[in-house]
Structures are given as structure tokens and as C-alpha cells.
Amino acid sequence: MKKNTQPEIYYSEYGVSLANSRAFFCDNSSFGSFVYDFEEEKKYLVSKNPKTSEIMSLSTDGKRVLTIDTTFDTRKRFIRLVEVETQQELVVTKVAFGYEALFSPVEDWIVIRGDIKRREKVFVYNLKTEEIVYTFPGAHPLSYGHLNEELQTFVLPNPRKKAEVFHFDFQTGEGRVVALPSKRLIHRVSLIAEETYFYIDGDYIATLCKAGEVIWQIKLDFDSSLYYAPEYFIWEGKVYFSHVYDIVVEGKEERQPCFYTLDLEKGSLETIVIPKEKIFGSFLPFLGNQVINKFGECIDLQTLESSRLSAVIF
Fold it and tell me: Which of 21, 44, 52, 143 could connect to 35 by a Cys-Cys bridge, CB 3.0–4.6 Å?
């Protein structure tokens, strides 16, 4: 296989501003951590040294980022709130040995996954008052859960007890445990409407549940190599499983890349064939109708046309 010569970048599911055409990127070799404005065609460096810190989250207005230092020295691993255009540090905290951090729908509140006194925790933190607002009963990577800006909620699977997820409401500041119809641990979960959950459990069963009642269920059997539930994103009423898979086209040996998708209304598993042979890896939502992988390859989900980020960005 021909080696990919594109720079390998890190791009987060939470890396696009909802208010304008800004996105953040991190590269662990030479390009550093930066925000790029696609309308202004301008790069805003946050960290020139990629081994110093990484951007974890971009605010919805595109004006601020959350970064976490990459050192393993617990005394120096800070979580920082940085203004994009000036690179000014607005807040610096070492409340935890941070792994992940996300902006929330509430001003000054962020969601953090990190170690406190060598115990991994997920918690909501008030940057202004320097107080922990709420601690989730169990800790999972934030990408296993879902932050819903519209509903002002964050949901996360319970890593210890089957069929349970944690539900935090930013409007009330209260958390609760929600029991879902499942026989296994919930691996990944999204709250897509009031009391309506989409989730994948340990049996690789995808379920849509509303007010405690199962709307539909389907067994995910398209990837026998999985050791955990596949990553996904939701776009225009469909669940897209992030990884690009190969399928056999019309019974021939020729392989063709595709996305597996689930229709949220019908619960039917479908394939969307990508009309390009050498597309691979996992893709996450990007600007407009596009998704992007870690090499800067983009696919338009409406036209299925592929493109690359311009080299000038790097």
C-alpha cells in the first residue's frame, strides 16, 4: 500500500464552531495546536510546540478554546481557557490531571474527565467560582456520551452497572440515573430528543428508546473485529458509523468503501457507497455537509465527493 504523505492531524468530534467556519486541529509531530478560520483563511496558533498542550474543545462562537497540557508531571498539567485571536489565557486550573474537557451550554461551566487524587472522575466544573458543580457516579471517556447543546444536557453510560446512563441537566444543575431497556452495559449513548435515547450495548445491539419504551432494535453484525461499540455521529436523521468499511459490490471480489448507517425513524441498516477507492479510516463531522479523517481527507455526505484540506492550513 502506498504510504500516505499527508500530515497526520488530530481532529475532535467537538472541533467545529457552530457559529462560524472555524475548526481546531492538533498535530503531534510538527504543526502544533491551532484554530483555522475558513472564511478569513487565517490560522490562530494556540501552541507552537505540539508536545506542550493540545486543544480539547472549541466554543460554539469560535472565540475560545480549552487546552490541556500534555506533560505527565501532575504538578504542571493545567487545563487552560484561551482566547483564540489573542492567545490570552483567561483561566488556568489544575483541578484535575486532565484527559478531556468540553465547553458546556452554560457560561463558565465545562465538563472534565481527569484524575483527582489518582481517581478517574467525570465532573462539571465552574471556571469562575473554581467549584465542582457535579460529579458523575462513574467515569467514561466523554466521547462515549453526548453533549446536546439544544437540550442543554450531557449523558454518559454507567461503566459499572448494566442498562444505565447518567443524565445531567445544565439548566437545573442536577443529575440523575436513567434505566434503559438492555441486558448489558451501555457502551455509547446519545440523547437525541426529550427522553429519547439512541444507544449501543455490550451485545452490539443498537436501540432507539423513547420514555422507557423500545421503538426499534437491531443487531450490528457488520464488523466482527470490534472489541467495543463502533464510533458514530448523527446527521440529518441517520446514524453514521464513523469508520469507512469495505463491501463486496454486486457479488464481485472488488472492494468498495462505504459508510454503514441507521435510519433513526425506521431502524434499518443501510450502506452508503463512497465513489472513491482509496478512502479509509474514521471520519467525524466537519464544516457544512462534510466529514473529515485524521489525514485531512473530506467527504461531502450529500454529494459523496471527496477532497483534501489545503496544505496552506498546515
Answer: 44
